[in-house]
Design brief:
This protein starts with 17 loop residues before the first helix and ends in a 14-residue tail after the last helix. The chain has 15 helices and 15 strands. The chain has 3 domains: about 90 residues, Winged helix-like DNA-binding domain superfamily/Winged helix DNA-binding domain (Arc Repressor Mutant, subunit A); about 120 residues, 2-Layer Sandwich (Nucleotidyltransferase, domain 5), CATH 3.30.420; about 170 residues, Nucleotidyltransferase, domain 5 (2-Layer Sandwich), CATH 3.30.420. The chain is α/β, with parallel strands linked by helices.
């Protein structure tokens, strides 16, 4: 039976025979190895799959006939016949990534080599101000799939990252009631007619860094997302950390100023009120309106309402002292919070991502300097600070592992299945 039956929601898996199911599971394991580890020879695959060379040869022949696998040519000989390498056909299936933020939604389609098939599409719609947001997303996604000549039945799944308080157990988002009261994986699966898997936005960024960025092969890494808000994704012992309910990483809501401003969360003096992109923009608008001299005013042609974080970062890169000081102040507050995390978690690395990462050394340097002030040196010296190389791509890329880890974890639901290895 074709491997596609394992990914077909219409297949009555309970009626698959045990022998056929065993072969399907072996095929799925081969698929996962080739996806995660790239090209292999038949001999390379036999040990992890635990089958003989003749059996692996037969299965690979079937996978080639089914167009899941391609023969890629030979490698160097080690004294005998040259080994033949096999790899996934990247166009046999696709993954859709949907990154939903407070201000916009980004969509792209990826092949099985994790390459974008089309150009990323951005939908400028605010999550909390559009009651018809879901229907707009559905129609735009359908049009996007058609534009890129993708057959919908070839989509393995949609990975969707979303901000707010996302309960990992129930898949309900408590911050955005306009998304409905049903579990979001069900909401989006029904809406898009594609298997859908949900992850918190900052945790998706951490997955993006762990699979494709600086956190690859790292066991303990903290991924900071500084944009309109502040979030934290944590890789601990090589695994994405969710916490008991999935609410971990609300780094922006630790109290920084006891008598400070009211935060959107309803508490006083949160880190977001002094260090987020929104806080930087608000302070820039106020001070420039009050007469502070800055090229920011020139860049927005005198319209202070048009000031955005990218404008401030651009001014800072051009040497504007006011813009530099705004970013440095944010770095100081971030360093105070990160110092606590370093003392508690002793991570290998901290990756600064999100929109503020575009400030590069203008944000990294003050964080580095202030960490020397706020942390015990012997603990601090084990943690490296980096600016994300993926920057704002990390979140959309992180939706790929959201889909694939779920796909790999799903096995046929067979009653009393005897998981005997085929010899």
């Amino acid at each position: 039976m074709d491997l596609s039956k394992l990914f077909d929601n219409n297949t009555d898996q309970a009626r698959i025979t045990n022998g056929t199911t065993r072969k399907l599971i072996l095929k799925k394991k081969i698929f996962s190895i080739l996806y995660l580890e790239s090209n292999k020879t038949i001999a390379d695959l036999c040990t992890p799959v635990n089958v003989s060379i003749p059996t692996m040869t037969r299965i690979m022949r079937e996978l080639i006939e089914e167009e899941w696998v391609e023969e890629l040519g030979t490698g160097d000989s080690r004294g005998g016949r040259k080994p033949v390498f096999y790899g996934l056909n990247p166009f046999i299936r696709y993954v859709i990534g949907i990154e939903i933020t407070r201000k916009y939604t980004r969509i792209n389609i990826f092949d099985l080599h994790n390459r974008p098939v089309g150009e990323m599409f951005q939908l400028d719609i605010e999550l909390d101000k559009a009651p018809d947001m879901l229907e707009v997303l559905r129609s735009q996604l359908d049009a996007f799939i058609i534009r890129n000549n993708i057959e919908k039945n070839k989509v393995l799944g949609a990975g969707i990252s979303i901000p707010g308080l996302l309960d990992k157990k129930s898949n309900i988002n408590y911050s955005y009631p306009n998304l409905g009261e049903k579990p979001l994986n069900i909401v989006f699966t029904e809406l898009l007619q594609i298997p859908s898997f949900i992850e918190h936005d900052t945790k998706a960024i951490a997955l993006g860094e762990a699979w494709f960025g600086l956190a690859r092969n790292k066991s303990n890494a903290l991924c900071l997302n500084v944009g309109s808000g502040i979030g934290l994704g944590m890789i601990i012992k090589g695994e994405l950390y969710h916490g008991v309910s999935g609410f971990s990483g609300e780094f922006g809501h630790i109290q920084m100023i006891p008598e400070g401003q009211l935060c959107d969360c309803g508490k006083i003096g949160c880190l977001e009120t002094v260090a987020s992109g929104s806080a930087i923009v608000a302070k820039a608008k106020q001070m420039i309106s009050e007469g502070t001299n800055s090229i920011i005013k020139k860049l927005v042609e005198g319209n202070t309402n048009a000031i955005r974080l990218p404008i401030i970062i651009k001014a800072a890169h051009q040497g504007d002292q006011f813009a530099i000081e705004l970013i440095e102040e944010s770095g100081d507050y971030l360093a105070r919070g990160l110092a606590v995390l370093i003392h508690l978690l002793n991570p290998e690395m901290i990756i600064i991502g999100g929109e503020l990462a575009n400030a590069e050394n203008l944000i990294a340097d003050p964080i580095q300097q202030k960490l020397n002030k706020y942390t015990i040196n012997r603990i601090r010296q084990d943690t490296d600070i980096y600016i994300s190389e993926l920057k704002e791509q990390a979140g959309l890329l992180g939706t790929i592992p959201v889909v694939m880890t779920n796909i790999f974890s799903q096995e046929p639901n067979i009653n009393n299945f005897n998981n005997t290895i085929i010899s």
